[in-house]
């Protein structure tokens, strides 16, 4: 001890390097210096020696950081300090300098020793520190470290309850007060906030009236902090209020104390997590309606997810392809029906000369395959589950909805023609009695909406005639539609109606959406990504808060409700009219909260209680020139491209009638933020405390009494697919082999089409079957997630290119056999789901073990692939088209052992990482050819959470090296030719065509004649891969949940024009934390009198 004291004295006389070296050696684990110091501290009885040793420890731990503190803790230093603290307090008065040293050390130790609170409670040190605070309220030098230690103690819930019983709350409120420059205020607030996390302490504080006190203190700090120098303190006060309002008693006290008005008037509300009752739609038992689930608002927030990624697969055995067939070939033999192009059955579609027929018979006799006679009856495999939940009537009335025109009486049709609107006691107009005439190009009839009213089309069951309204001359009623045949060769309104009649939906839709009927012509002009106005989110949230501040403005009128068929109620035209009862439609409820503002609630996926994201609905009875605000209040994804310039889509019937049938990007003041509506743990998949999100946008309509449609993305219905396929089949020429089969029947009773496209054998060929068998197979699929409609538009571009007559298309058909499933989830698409099928499951998570009854499309699609592998014809390329809601551009996900292992710390040998780099060829080709494609956004990492997806299963079980998911943005591009532009259907279709061209170029790298070029290309791939690995985070980050990651939207923090303060460090941490819990505040709901909406930290 004497030597240590002397070392302390001669510190300044030692050279700096020598001093630093000595201090480092003393605190190292191997030197034993820390044990000597702690032993000396434990054995000494001299006060001055104790103070000197504590001073040395303070200096060592201050400069040494975490490493030296860790050594101190590991050597038992924490327990020794607590023993010294308790022992010194037994002989009052305690030495102030000794208490100051001990608590200063405990503050440093608390950062490293997570069990400090438990050790302090067991040693009886809690009350010692509390008494020091109680009797030294004016001694700021000692008070500050004691408060810091109390803050560490109270982080333990048991300690917090114990300290609350001992009167700590009262002491904290003695320290906390009106605006001042005391250094202890912030620490006391943080300690109080930690104590109030305990429900018992929160109730004690509310019972003693501390919530109004905190509001008063906050007002005083806000009023005096004009230069915003103490934002951290104001934030800490709000943190205390937030913890109090986590209990019902606190929320009531907050309202009684006029807390909402106080926080609203200060305009700097940050953290006030308050939840009020509001019943949101949950899983319907049948159809599109069902019971509501009442959320549990007392649920505690779940812990934040870890910042490190534990989802990457590290098991090398799971990354290697499976070497054995997973199913016996006898089970797969039935799928031979779908590969008639590889057998004699394709000959029934082709006409050959007698000479060719002789050669064919020779080939058949010599072939090792066993074929059945052409006369045998082959049935395609179908799901055995009957469509029990759908309307058994295949034919039903179809309605095309409209609203009365805004034209004056002089332009209206005679009253007799208004009879087209069916009355309850009238039969629907028979479809066969309706003729659809197409107006010459360039002409328009603005009175069409008036003439239609509400047109009912009937399929004419059993050929019987139905009395329906006719014009005065007794002739057929005429429906005029714009002639878009020149611009839309694959669209035919007559044919579309025929396709709708054979489409089965759970709600048995009887209406047709105008955009699907008229068709959509892509805009010639580019639509730029919307530049977000600064502060728009803050403005919108405060408008929500005003619902409680000014309750007289709130109408709370339900104007549309699928659960109540009596809605809407006539109101003299003061409210908008909504509708979503058509194919792919999704809107469950509309509530008018102000004269021109509506809260909208979406349906969950059928047989599910979540996945609220896709919307498609009709709006009518609007006024032109008025700004209408729409709030979709039960979205689920934690972030959206709506925060990054994406706009909703709108289709105007009046514009379509006038010759502009376009879906256009529209809306201003768009933002997407967390609100207070709490999802129950059932709806949130077992996670507690999850909240919904609000998408808000403002629209100004151009036409009076127009009929407009809004959608999440460009709609593409199942009936539209059937229409397009029928039109495509008509494009077949003598050079094109095109066949359409029904892969299976879905749960809803709809067929899942399977297409085969290739080139017909050359007329000079002596062996046409061998020509087919020499072509590798490319297997494509799309629309497994119904809400990702952009994948269907990409697929449309692919199909149109494959059926075109260009030389490149013919060369492509001669190079490959294409097996295509353009819509893997027809039921979900038809019924307006966002992600699931009728089974309520994500079909893209069922590929490992699909059920033939519950997941028929996946089961049979996988069986096709298994058959190809079993017959030695493993596809060269598999690609599943998807849409991405969180990223820009078009990109691919693939599978690579090497790139997956490189993202982990797993030690593997070189042979384990050996793989062909050909999986990177196609993405690189696309990056060179397709302007919307981004190679830097691609990822080839295999994740555990994606092991049951099509991409991973086909790669691992089928052995397809080039197995991809191609993701297309819902928003736009931030690179290349389309940088700064929102993506449209023309760009999506172009992407589908460019994918075909890339496959044509890929043929060069897989052909034996081009093997030398392929080897040099692989060297380029290796170089790119090494360069990619050297750049951190170049591949797309993996995820923990279903949603994909996107950094939180940041708005600049600016409190006043003259503020030059630094950003609050805690706030900066929140901005950097992508998973940080958001910060809601209280407002009033349209349907529940009060509700909570969120103000993110970045909103101010």
From TrEMBL:
Q: Which EC number(s) does UniProt give? A: 3.4.17.24
Q: Which PROSITE patterns match?
A: PEPTIDASE_M14
Q: Which residues form the active site?
A: 967
Q: Can the keyword Mitochondrion be found in this entry's annotation?
A: yes
Q: Does the keyword Nucleus apply?
A: yes
Q: Quote the cellular component terms of the Gene Ontology held in the record.
A: cytosol; mitochondrion; nucleus
Organism domain of life: Eukaryota
**Where in this protein does the record put region Disordered?**
395-430, 1056-1100
- InterPro entries recorded: ARM-like, ARM-type_fold, CBPC1/4, Cytosolic_carboxypeptidase, Pepdidase_M14_N, Peptidase_M14
Name of this chain's protein: Cytosolic carboxypeptidase 1
């Amino acid at each position: 001890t004497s030597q240590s004291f002397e070392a302390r004295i001669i510190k300044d006389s030692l050279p700096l390097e020598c001093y630093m070296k000595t201090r480092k050696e003393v605190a190292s684990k191997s030197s034993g210096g820390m044990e000597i110091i702690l032993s000396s501290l434990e054995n000494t009885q001299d006060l001055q020696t104790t103070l000197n040793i504590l001073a040395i420890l303070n200096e060592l731990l201050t400069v040494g950081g975490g490493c030296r503190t860790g050594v101190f803790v590991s050597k038992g230093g924490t327990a020794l300090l607590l023993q010294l603290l308790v022992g010194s307090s037994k002989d009052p008065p305690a030495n102030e300098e000794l208490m100051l040293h001990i608590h200063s050390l405990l503050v440093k130790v608390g950062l490293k020793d997570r069990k400090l609170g438990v050790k302090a409670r067991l040693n009886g040190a809690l009350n010692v520190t509390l008494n020091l605070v109680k009797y030294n309220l004016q001694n700021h030098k000692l008070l500050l470290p004691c408060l810091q230690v109390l803050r560490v103690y109270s982080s333990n819930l048991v300690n917090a309850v114990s300290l609350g019983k001992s009167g700590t709350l009262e002491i904290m409120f003695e320290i906390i007060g009106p605006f001042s420059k005391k250094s202890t205020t912030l620490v006391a607030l943080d300690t109080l906030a930690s104590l109030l996390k305990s429900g018992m302490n929160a109730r004690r504080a509310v019972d003693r009236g501390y919530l109004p006190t905190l509001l008063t203190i906050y007002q005083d700090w806000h009023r005096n902090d004009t230069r915003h120098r103490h934002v951290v303190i104001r934030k800490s006060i709000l943190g205390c209020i937030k913890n109090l309002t986590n209990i019902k008693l606190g929320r009531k006290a907050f309202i009684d104390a006029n807390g909402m008005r106080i926080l609203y008037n200060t305009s700097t509300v940050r953290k006030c997590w308050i939840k009020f009752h509001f019943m949101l739609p949950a899983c319907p038992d049948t159809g599109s309606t069902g019971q509501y689930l009442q959320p549990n608002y007392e649920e505690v927030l779940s812990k934040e997810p870890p910042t490190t990624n534990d989802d990457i697969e590290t098991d090398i055995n799971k990354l290697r392809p499976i070497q054995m067939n997973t199913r016996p070939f006898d089970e797969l033999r039935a799928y031979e029906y779908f590969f008639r192009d590889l057998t004699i059955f394709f000959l029934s579609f082709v006409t050959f000369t007698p000479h060719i027929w002789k050669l064919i018979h020779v080939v058949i006799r010599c072939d090792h395959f066993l074929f059945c006679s052409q006369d045998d009856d082959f049935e395609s495999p179908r799901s055995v589950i009957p469509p029990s939940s759908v309307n058994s009537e295949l034919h039903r009335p179809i309605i095309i909805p409209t609203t009365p025109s805004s034209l004056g009486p002089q332009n209206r049709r005679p009253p007799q023609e208004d009879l087209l609107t069916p009355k309850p006691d009238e039969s629907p107009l028979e479809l066969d009695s309706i003729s659809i005439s197409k107006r010459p190009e360039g002409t328009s009839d603005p009175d069409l909406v008036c003439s239609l009213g509400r047109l009912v089309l009937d399929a004419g069951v059993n050929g019987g005639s139905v009395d329906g309204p006719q014009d005065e001359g007794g002739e057929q009623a005429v429906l005029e539609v714009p002639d878009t045949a020149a611009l839309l060769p694959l669209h035919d309104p007559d044919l579309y109606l025929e396709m709708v009649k054979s489409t089965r939906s759970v709600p048995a839709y009887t209406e047709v959406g105008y955009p699907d009927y008229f068709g959509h012509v892509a805009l010639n002009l580019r639509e730029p990504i919307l530049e977000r106005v600064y502060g728009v989110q803050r403005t919108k949230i405060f408008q929500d808060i005003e619902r409680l501040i000014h309750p007289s403005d709130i109408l709370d009128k339900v104007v549309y409700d699928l659960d109540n068929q009596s809605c809407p109620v006539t109101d003299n035209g003061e409210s908008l009219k909504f509708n979503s009862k058509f194919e792919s439609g999704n809107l469950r409820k509309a509530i008018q909260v102000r004269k021109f503002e509506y809260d909208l609630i979406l349906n969950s996926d059928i047989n599910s209680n979540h996945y609220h994201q896709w919307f498609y609905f009709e709006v009518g009875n609007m006024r032109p020139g008025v700004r209408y605000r729409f709030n979709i209040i039960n979205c689920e994804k934690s972030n959206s491209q709506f925060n990054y310039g994406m706009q909703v889509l709108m289709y105007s019937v009046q514009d379509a009638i006038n010759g502009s049938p376009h879906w256009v990007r529209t809306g201003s003041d768009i933002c997407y933020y967390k609100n207070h509506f709490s999802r129950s743990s059932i709806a949130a998949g077992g996670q507690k405390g999850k909240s919904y999100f609000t998408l808000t946008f403002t629209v100004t309509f151009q036409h009076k009494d127009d009929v407009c449609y809004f959608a999440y993305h460009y709609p593409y219905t199942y009936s539209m697919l059937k229409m397009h396929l029928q039109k495509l089949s008509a494009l077949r020429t003598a050079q094109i082999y095109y066949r359409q089969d029904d892969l299976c029947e879905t749960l809803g009773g709809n067929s899942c089409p399977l297409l085969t496209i290739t080139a017909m054998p050359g007329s000079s060929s002596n062996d046409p079957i061998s020509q087919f068998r020499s072509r590798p197979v490319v297997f494509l699929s799309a629309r497994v997630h119904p809400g990702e409609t952009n994948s269907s538009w990409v697929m449309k571009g692919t199909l149109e290119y494959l059926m075109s007559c260009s030389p490149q298309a013919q060369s492509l058909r001669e190079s490959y056999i294409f097996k295509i499933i353009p819509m893997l989830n027809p039921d979900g698409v038809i019924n307006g789901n966002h992600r699931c099928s009728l089974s309520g499951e994500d079909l893209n998570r069922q590929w490992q073990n699909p059920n033939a009854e519950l997941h028929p499309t996946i089961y049979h699609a996988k069986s096709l692939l298994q058959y190809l592998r079993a017959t030695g014809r493993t596809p060269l390329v598999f690609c599943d088209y998807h849409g991405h809601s969180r990223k820009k551009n078009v990109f691919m996900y693939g599978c690579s052992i090497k790139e997956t292992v490189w993202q982990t710390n797993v030690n593997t040998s070189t042979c384990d990482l050996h793989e062909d780099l050909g999986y990177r060829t196609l993405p690189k080709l696309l990056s060179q050819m397709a302007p919307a494609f981004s190679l830097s956004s691609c990822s080839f990492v295999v994740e555990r959470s994606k092991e049951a997806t099509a991409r991973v299963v086909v790669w691992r079980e089928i052995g397809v090296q080039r197995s991809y998911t191609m993701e297309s943005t819902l928003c736009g591009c931030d690179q290349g030719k389309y940088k700064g532009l929102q993506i449209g259907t023309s760009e999506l279709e172009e992407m589908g065509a460019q994918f075909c061209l890339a496959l044509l170029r890929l043929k060069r790298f897989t052909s034996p004649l081009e093997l030398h070029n392929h080897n040099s290309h692989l060297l380029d791939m290796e170089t790119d891969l090494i360069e990619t690995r050297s750049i951190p985070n170049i591949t797309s980050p993996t995820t923990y949940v279903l949603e994909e990651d996107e950094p939180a939207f940041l708005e600049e923090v600016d409190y006043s024009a003259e503020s030059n303060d630094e950003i609050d460090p805690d706030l900066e941490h929140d901005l950097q934390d992508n998973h940080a819990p958001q910060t809601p505040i209280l407002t009033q709901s349209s349907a529940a009198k009060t509700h909570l909406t969120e103000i993110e930290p970045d909103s101010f």
